[in-house]
């Protein structure tokens, strides 16, 4: 059990339910449990055409579905429109993580989330993306606000999911649930760059589908 008590949250005023974009089970587990304990009505929106290859995409998605079903949370399975993702990433193949390719990638995922929200009666969107310490929260929040601004009546909730022990509980839940442990951000370029780094540092290349969180492991992510 975490020593850090979970804070009970309320949605920003004027909103009664939330469309939560989820990138994966490890990142969304803590966010989902916090929302449930806070009595907040929400649905999961899984739109991540960045994830490559399809084997990795399906593993990450299935893990998220398993957790949503366990908690009886609606899971909206959106397109895997990789052609669009690659078209938008053209010319940015060699950009570093946290650079302009990632801004494009967050923009694209938030744009679809905001579109779905506007067409299905949600007035508030957010994402699990910002809970990871590997991500630039300001970059993510800028993308979220930008997407929401395209629609009248849609707001982006930039709550900091890392605070009040959120980042610690994220790891605890991942171990308890034995979630699949992805070893790169998601796209083919992050897979390439992580493998390059690993080989330079004498480590083996990433093997897809083999690593899972467990209570026996050291805290490493
Ligand atoms: S590194 Fe991650 S955030 Fe950046 S483009 Fe690739 S999948 Fe998207």
UniProtKB/TrEMBL annotation:
Catalytic activity: epoxyqueuosine(34) in tRNA + AH2 = queuosine(34) in tRNA + A + H2O
Assigned EC number: 1.17.99.6
GO molecular function: 4 iron, 4 sulfur cluster binding; epoxyqueuosine reductase activity; metal ion binding
Pfam families registered for this protein in UniProt: QueH
Disulphide bridges: 185-187
GO annotation terms (biological process): tRNA queuosine(34) biosynthetic process
Domain of life: Bacteria
Keywords: 4Fe-4S, Disulfide bond, Iron, Iron-sulfur, Metal-binding, Oxidoreductase, Queuosine biosynthesis, Redox-active center, tRNA processing
Functional pathway: tRNA modification; tRNA-queuosine biosynthesis
Annotated [4Fe-4S] cluster binding sites: 23-24, 102, 105
InterPro entries: QueH
Family in the record: Belongs to the QueH family.
Function: Catalyzes the conversion of epoxyqueuosine (oQ) to queuosine (Q), which is a hypermodified base found in the wobble positions of tRNA(Asp), tRNA(Asn), tRNA(His) and tRNA(Tyr).
The protein's name in its UniProt record: Epoxyqueuosine reductase QueH
Organism encoding this protein: Acinetobacter rudis CIP 110305
């Amino acid at each position: 059990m975490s020593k850090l008590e979970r804070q009970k949250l309320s949605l920003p005023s004027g909103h009664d339910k939330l469309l939560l974009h989820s990138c994966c089970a490890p990142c969304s587990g803590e966010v989902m449990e916090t929302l449930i304990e806070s009595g907040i009505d929400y649905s999961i929106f899984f739109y991540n055409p960045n994830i490559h290859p399809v084997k990795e995409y399906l593993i990450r998605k299935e893990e998220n579905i398993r957790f949503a079903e366990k908690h009886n949370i609606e899971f909206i399975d959106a397109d895997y429109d990789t052609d669009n993702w690659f078209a938008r990433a053209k010319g940015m193949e060699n950009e570093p993580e946290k650079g302009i390719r990632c801004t494009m990638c967050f923009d694209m995922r938030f744009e679809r989330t905001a579109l779905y929200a506007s067409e299905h009666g949600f007035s508030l969107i957010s994402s699990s993306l910002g809970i990871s310490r590997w991500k630039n929260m300001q970059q993510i929040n800028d993308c979220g606000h930008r997407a929401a601004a395209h629609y009248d009546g849609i707001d982006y909730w930039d709550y900091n999911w890392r605070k009040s022990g959120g980042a610690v509980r994220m790891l605890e839940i991942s171990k308890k649930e034995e979630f699949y442990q992805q070893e790169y951000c998601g796209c083919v370029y992050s897979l390439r760059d992580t493998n390059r780094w690993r080989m330079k540092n004498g480590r083996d290349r990433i093997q897809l589908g083999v690593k899972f969180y467990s209570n026996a492991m050291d805290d490493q992510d």
